[in-house]
Design brief:
The complex is a heterodimer. By secondary structure, chain A is mainly α. Chain A contains 9 helices and 7 strands. Chain A is globular. Chain B is built from 2 helices and no strands. Chain B is rod-shaped and about 205 Å long. The chains are: A mainly alpha, B mainly alpha.
Chain lengths: 338, 168
């Protein structure tokens, strides 16, 4: 709880400076310019070609990231040199060929990709260090200490979930479920942290959740038992249902990854948007005088703390739900003939 | 906005990075942890089961021990009783035997004493007879020292002999 609170405080301290786009001066209460709330929010939940961290003396502080595009050849450049290479940003902030206006094959290391690399590397290191502890120590005689003590309950929670939901050959699937759970959990939490190592809205990005859901989909459908396919294509139902059931079953099988994708994506995205809105209230209210803005700031901070704590809960729940549903889907596909 | 259209670049990198890390962790990460913890759980379960068994065995041993103590005590008391009985019997037997022996000895002694007495009596009788004969001889010698007496005595003897002859 204390950690959550600190994270919330950091978010609330970090965000005002981090979220202000360089061309929207919001500190001036007398300014006629209104705040581009939508722009601020979309900047935070979307992707960018450089990692904008803060403003320092009127200049943006950002980590330049390599743009990699494959068009008539491979081009590598930073965003500042996009024009020299014949590319420009379109209305959605994506790189397009300046001459033709078409999207090239864009494999840029964007903010999300960098965050993906860092968080996944972190997970890799953490798990390998934990595994090393188990190799070096006799777990039959010693209780786990340090990192192993922290990671073991999470891994074993998923492992036990796999055993309960999948059945006898759960050991084959347990690594995937552990990986999915810990990866989603880690990135959910990193997404709540408002400044550099975190702050990327990775699990609230549909591409990411789509890949995760497709992993589950292929795991389910490529390792299903005969019984599972029979239930889809030739279910044991009365004659008049015979042509209808396969359609329904197939649709249901295809909808499972879609629901997984959208559930995780929408939950995380909604959480981010809510927190950003609450923080934006502080700046919107700035021009309505000190009393109003002071009062609303207090309300916003309190509400922001509440939402952040809620987000921590949601982060865990969503990671758990994704893993739980994946294990149930796998378990259904592993059913044997009775 | 492009919130719900997956970006190809991110898809690509996600597949590559997630795939590689998943491969590494599925090979060197999670199975190491889960296998070890499963082994530990199995060991704990087994230890608990063993402890239960040992406890049950201990309980049964306790019962057995109590039973053994009980039977030992019974046997002890029985043996004591038997020993007492045996003792009493031996003492009684010994007494009876001693009595019999004593009776026998006594009887023999009595017989011997009777025999001794008899022989002693016989000796005395013989002695007395001899003495009387000697006395009689002396008396006779003294009586028959003169002629008159000799004749009287002979007559008496003849009378006596004739009387006893007549009576017979």
């Amino acid at each position: 709880m204390i950690l959550t609170f600190l994270i919330s405080l950091l978010l609330l301290q970090g965000d005002p400076s981090a979220q202000v786009p360089q061309d929207t001066p919001v500190i001036l209460s007398e300014s006629e310019e209104s705040i581009d709330v939508t722009g601020i929010i979309f900047e935070h939940i979307g992707d960018e070609y450089e990692w904008h961290i803060t403003e320092w003396k009127g200049r943006p502080v950002a980590i330049p990231l390599p743009c990699i595009v494959i068009d008539d050849g491979v081009h590598v450049f930073t965003l500042h040199h996009a024009a020299e290479n014949g590319y420009t940003l379109n209305g959605e902030g994506k790189l397009v060929n300046a001459a033709t206006g078409k999207r090239p094959l864009d494999l840029s290391i964007t903010k999300n990709v960098l965050s993906l690399m860092m968080s996944t590397l972190l997970l890799l290191v953490v798990i390998l260090l934990t595994a090393r502890w188990y190799k070096k120590h006799d777990a039959l005689k010693e209780a786990p200490t340090g990192l192993a003590a922290a990671v073991e309950p999470l891994v074993m929670m998923v492992h036990d979930m796999a055993r309960e939901n999948i059945g006898e050959d759960y050991r084959r699937y347990s690594p995937y479920l552990c990986m999915a759970f810990l990866w989603i959990l880690l990135n959910n939490f990193l997404g709540i942290i408002p400044f550099f190592p975190g702050g990327a809205n990775l699990t609230g990005n549909i591409a990411i959740t789509l890949v995760l859901a497709l992993c589950t989909f292929f795991t389910v459908n490529l390792t299903g038992t005969k019984h599972y396919y029979k239930e889809i294509f030739a279910p044991d139902v009365p004659g008049f249902l015979k042509p209808v059931m396969p359609v329904i079953e197939l649709f249901s099988a295809l909808m499972k990854p879609v629901s997984l994708t959208v559930r995780l994506f929408a939950n995380m995205l909604a959480g981010h948007i809510m927190i950003l809105c609450i923080v934006c209230v502080i700046f919107i209210m700035a021009k309505y005088g000190p009393l109003m803005s002071g009062g609303m700031t207090l309300v916003s901070v309190l509400f922001g703390v509440f939402l952040d704590i809620l987000e921590c809960l949601v982060s865990f729940i969503q990671a758990y739900v994704f893993t739980m549903l994946s294990s149930i889907y796998i378990g259904l596909a592993r059913q044997k003939e009775e | 906005m492009n919130l719900i259209t997956p970006e190809f670049g991110l898809l690509f990198w996600m597949v590559v990075i997630f795939g590689i890390v998943f491969f590494l962790l599925a090979k060197f990460g999670f199975p190491v942890i889960t296998d070890m913890v499963d082994k530990r759980s199995a060991k704990i379960a087994q230890s608990l089961r063993e402890a239960d068994e040992i406890q049950a065995q201990m309980a049964s041993w306790k019962v057995e021990q109590a039973q053994m103590l009980e039977t030992t005590r019974k046997e002890q008391s029985q043996m004591l009783r038997e020993a007492t009985e045996t003792k009493a019997r031996i003492v009684a037997d010994a007494k009876a035997q001693a009595q019999a022996e004593a009776d026998k000895i006594l009887a023999e002694a009595k017989l011997q004493i009777a025999a001794e007495k008899e022989s002693a009596l016989r000796d005395v009788r013989r002695e007395v007879a001899l003495l009387s004969v000697r006395v009689a001889e002396k008396v006779l010698r003294h009586e028959l020292s003169d002629e008159g007496n000799q004749k009287v005595f002979i007559d008496e003897l003849v009378d006596e002999a004739s009387k006893s002859q007549m009576r017979s």
